Amino acid sequence: MRNKKLAGSVAVAAALCAAGTALASSHREAPFITTSPKVDATDFYMFRSYEGVSTGGTGGRADYVTLIANYQPLQAPYGGPNYFSLDPNALYEIHIDNNGDAAEDITFQFRFQNKLNNIALPIGAGAAQKSVAIPLIQAGAVANLNDANLNLNETYSVNVVRGDRRKGTGAAVTKAGGGISFEKPVDYIGVKTLGNAGAYAAYAAKHVHEIRVPGCPAGKDGGRVFVGQRQEGFAVNLGPIFDLVNAPLSVITNPANINAAAANSIQNTNVTSIALEVHKDCLVAGGESVIGGWTTASLRQARLLSPNPASGHQTSEKPGGAWVQVSRLGQPLVNEVVIGLKDKDKFNASKPKDDGQFLDYVTNPTLPALLGLVLTGSPAGLAPTNVPRTDLATVFLTGITGVNKPTTVKASEMLRLNTAIAPLPYAAQNRLAIVGSLKTSPAGTDFAGFPNGRRPKDDVVDIALVAMLGGLCMANGDGDTLKLNSIPGVPGVTSACKPSSVPAGAASLDVHDAVDQAAVPFLGAFPYLNTPNAGSQ
């Protein structure tokens, strides 16, 4: 008889680490979602804001938490003439669990609206002249909110729901100056329409809105929101990775290759970011400082397509029925490379509280054996044999004791962030975060990153690779504790590591994907992800 609690613990924890070894972000990870790229979540970030923060973790925006949900993967910057507006018939959500029960307590809901301005030009002369609609989304240079040259304006609303996402109490998030409609910048069509990168950055900055969040403690209801196109912030050599990891084992275990050994093949693409900054005191509850977070997208259960669409914009579809969740993302990479192909759509439709149903995929994960097969010629070449992998459960599923484990917790897949741990300025961040504390001196200098939440700079692939291949296990008498125990300030955590079960040479803190996440350009301020690539220069 299976232990249900263990099922929940081990199931997703192993999934988390195993996922990281795929060396790719969550792009096109399930069969259905490939048909609906507008609601395909690619990355989710959750971290204490470090804009203007001192080396002591104070000042600037240190009291805020930033949440970023990226959608629409692998956008070609030149993808005109319609580019990459979000779906007005979809519901995009960011969920927060602030009591460890694997259910949402706060949900931020985003709905999008497209307004066609129907710009027309006079064509012909005299009696033959007619006013004819233009075929593009812009009629000239664009620089301002609701610019007169935009043929299509995108706006959105934000609601906050407390309790169950569908049955809880909801209220509108408002602009600091009043109003519930937020403007979204047009994608970076190119330099003739929107100017150089500096000009587009200034244009996008006009769409960072100061907000008021109802239901927050007095004086803690402020924040910011931005939705718009950004440069892809994930570093990966995507093609070779899914070509059976088309790189020798010697490349990904050589420390000399950590920095810029391979090209970041998706750096020339864009994504659409939903970025929200909220005061940390608005997200926590009951004295618990640890929160969990994930993003989802939902579509209506049915849609009716007209064979004779009327003039307008997206008028051929009439949705109806209940909301159906079709995308889910918390920890990076879970659905792509852990969940079996037949159940990937099921995972995208599932909730954290039900994660025990995926036990069979993760108590005996197939990915380590697959990596061993393609890199060494043997399934046993890299895969630790200590299954179920409770060491992974400790680090990635329930959270690390003394770092980001809630007082009470139901094992489930989501990012977990301890809001009581001070942020570090970008320059002081270790790309390996907590795992990096095992390699650097003095030890224990960066607890503010993955798996304690996730920042853009965090090299989640390398961190997860280290953990998956047993790199966090160490001999300590019984040979069953985590190396993390050696970090000052982290309480001892027992776990069935069994270092002897890890193949010789596999459990290395130097294992990596040969692409350096820390080399990706980011902004030092909200919304942190960089100005997108232009459609033309």
Overall description:
This protein is an alpha+beta fold and 537 residues long. It has one domain (4-79, 175-180, 192-302, 318-519). 16% of the residues lie in helices and 24% in strands. The chain is built from 12 helices and 18 strands. Strands 3, 4, 7, 8, 10, 14, 15 and 16 form an 8-stranded antiparallel sheet that branches. β17 and β18 (481-482) form a beta hairpin. α1 (4-20) crosses α10. The model is unreliable at 1-24 (pLDDT under 50).
Quick structural gist:
Helix content is 16%, strand content 24%.
Helix-strand layout with pairing:
Blueprint: H1 4-20, E1 41-48, E2 64-75, E3 90-97, E4 106-116, E5 120-123, E6 130-133, E7 152-162, E8 169-172, E9 174-175, E10 182-184, H2 191-194, H3 197-205, E11 209-212, E12 222-231, H4 238-242, H5 249-252, E13 270-279, E14 290-305, E15 317-329, H6 334-337, H7 344-349, H8 359-362, H9 367-376, H10 390-397, E16 415-418, H11 433-436, H12 460-468, E17 473-474, E18 481-482
Antiparallel strand pairs: 1-2, 2-13, 3-4, 3-14, 4-7, 5-6, 7-8, 7-10, 9-11, 11-12, 12-13, 14-15, 14-16, 17-18
Helix pairs in contact: 1-10, 1-12
